[in-house]
């Protein structure tokens, strides 16, 4: 290493140590605690990487020569509490005051080749532990308490070059743990790093190995990727390496063959642009705090809906007589596909419901034209969107990717007009909580019927009238209810 390189590395180390200043007291205590007990300990992985990048890190991951039972002995009396849910993998968790940390025995993992569960083998040195890390940028450590920087695989150089390489040959690393291939895409989205050619080739050759990873772990990586500053970078890696074919096959399926007459746009490219535009519309922290439709970023539901909104197009594409192309009801088909994919990835029910609903509603605005909707139609739009209205606003606006400036301006002005009408109706009618003027108890009492299907139909009728005609008042609602009920009592009613 040249003198210039040593000077540069020294300056970077000083910057990293300054970044770690808030945790330095705690780290020094831990180093002295373990050293007094005759054990080595080091800060390792993501916290070290982020310190060099000047990024905040909430994690404190440490590795030690001590075995799990020895870790517990060292921490007894120092930590407020400890837990050992990771004992089988050599990890002991601890909390002291507001600080939480995980300390793991040096590892030299071997994997069984059929699942990604490691067969735990404790290592004997820090260097042996670092070689089993996923990427070289995560294979750096700071020995405690003396803060000696350990970088046997050139991770600092990879940070400077914004590249991702593995400590082992990539084939060995990915065979040990296929989830690392998804992490490569995630780090591209989060940090702007690019996997090297040999890493990308190994990911392509071994893409099918991702099938042994649990759906929950795949989901967690995809969520981190989608919430990153540049999800497109990671998604493109997933598609080009073939990993997306196994974890999100609906995405590469959007790469429809564009016919020679270019009668429809590139749906894959369109979807990535919509995602980018939706991210651009997310509200900044503290922005528009009093707006009920604000969507603070990063928002997982909005981003997933933007990415998946057109996945119903491939199965619904039809070439029409005269040269046209149609995708009839692709929003309905896409909603069903979205629900199935998110369930397969073990997303929670609320996220599945919200993203699916947005995909289903994303075309609704196109019937608005230049303002032809009645107030009743506007009320239905708001009611059908419910608490997702703010996200629907942003998804709909993002879905305009036309290069025709006049068309784009026309669509934007039209949606501006719709939002203005929504605000006006909100002020007049408290549109966010549209309900019939009579609740279920009142309807049952007026009609003399118990809770059940009949009462449900009566409630839905009054809601439909409320949406169509606006506020009726309690007396008007009662008269309409009795009129409707009389029709139900007549033959054929």
From TrEMBL:
Residues 408-435 form a coiled coil. GO terms for biological process: tRNA processing. GO terms for molecular function: metal ion binding; nucleotide binding; nucleotidyltransferase activity; tRNA binding. Pfam families: HD, PolyA_pol, PolyA_pol_RNAbd. SUPFAM superfamilies: Nucleotidyltransferase, Poly A polymerase C-terminal region-like. Residues 267-425 form the HD domain. InterPro entries: Bact_CCA-adding_enz_type3_sf, HD/PDEase_dom, HD_domain, HDIG_dom, NT_sf, PolA_pol_head_dom, PolyA_RNA-bd, tRNA_adenylyltransferase. The keyword Nucleotide-binding applies. PROSITE patterns: HD. Keywords: Coiled coil, Magnesium, Metal-binding, Nucleotide-binding, Nucleotidyltransferase, Transferase, tRNA processing. Its cofactor is Mg(2+). Gene3D superfamilies: Beta Polymerase, domain 2 (3.30.460.10), cca-adding enzyme, domain 2 (1.10.3090.10). It comes from the Bacteria. This is CCA tRNA nucleotidyltransferase.
């Amino acid at each position: 290493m040249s003198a210039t390189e040593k000077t540069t590395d020294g300056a970077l180390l000083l910057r990293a140590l300054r970044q770690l200043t808030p945790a330095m007291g705690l780290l020094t205590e831990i180093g002295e605690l373990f050293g007094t007990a005759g054990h080595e300990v080091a800060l390792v992985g993501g916290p070290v990487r982020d310190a060099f990048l000047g990024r905040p890190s909430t994690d404190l991951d440490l590795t030690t020569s001590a075995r799990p039972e020895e870790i517990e002995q060292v921490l007894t009396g120092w930590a407020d509490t400890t837990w050992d849910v990771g004992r089988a993998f050599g990890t002991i968790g601890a909390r002291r005051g507001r600080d939480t940390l995980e300390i793991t025995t040096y590892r030299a993992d071997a994997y069984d080749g059929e699942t990604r569960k490691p067969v735990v083998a404790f290592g004997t040195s820090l260097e042996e532990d670092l070689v089993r890390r996923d990427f070289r940028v995560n294979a750096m450590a700071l020995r405690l308490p003396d803060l000696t920087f350990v970088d046997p695989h050139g991770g600092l150089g990879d940070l400077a070059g914004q590249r991702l390489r593995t400590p082992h040959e990539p084939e060995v690393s990915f065979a040990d743990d296929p989830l690392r291939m998804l992490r490569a895409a995630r780090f591209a989205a989060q940090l702007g790093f690019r996997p090297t050619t040999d890493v990308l080739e190994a990911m392509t050759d071994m893409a099918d190995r991702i099938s042994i990873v649990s759906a929950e772990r795949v989901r967690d990586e995809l969520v981190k990727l989608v919430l990153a500053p540049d999800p497109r970078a990671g998604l493109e890696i997933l598609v080009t390496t073939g990993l997306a074919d196994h974890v999100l096959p609906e995405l590469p399926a959007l790469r429809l063959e564009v016919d020679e007459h270019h009668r429809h746009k590139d749906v894959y490219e369109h979807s990535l642009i919509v995602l980018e535009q939706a991210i651009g519309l997310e509200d900044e922290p503290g922005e528009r705090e009093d707006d009920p439709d604000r969507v603070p970023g990063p928002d997982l539901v909005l981003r997933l809906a933007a990415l998946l909104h057109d996945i119903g197009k491939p199965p619904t594409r039809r070439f029409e007589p005269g040269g046209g192309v149609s995708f009839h009801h692709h929003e309905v088909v896409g909603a069903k596909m979205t629900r199935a994919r998110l369930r397969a990835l073990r997303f929670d029910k609320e996220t599945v419901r919200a993203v699916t609903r947005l995909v289903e509603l994303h075309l609704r605005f196109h019937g608005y034209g230049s303002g032809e909707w009645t107030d009743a139609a506007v009320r239905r739009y708001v009611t059908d969107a419910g608490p997702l209205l703010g996200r629907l606003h942003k998804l709909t606006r993002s879905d305009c990717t036309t290069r025709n400036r006049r068309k784009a301006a026309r669509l934007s002005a039209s949606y501006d007009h719709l939002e203005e009408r929504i605000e006006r109706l909100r002020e007049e009618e408290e549109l966010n909580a549209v309900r019939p003027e009579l609740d279920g108890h009142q309807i049952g009492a007026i009609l003399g019927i118990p809770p059940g299907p009949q009462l449900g139909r009566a409630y839905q009728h009054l809601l439909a009238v409320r949406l169509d005609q606006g506020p009726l008042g309690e007396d008007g609602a009662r008269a309409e209810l009795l009129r409707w009920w009389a029709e139900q009592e007549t033959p054929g009613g």
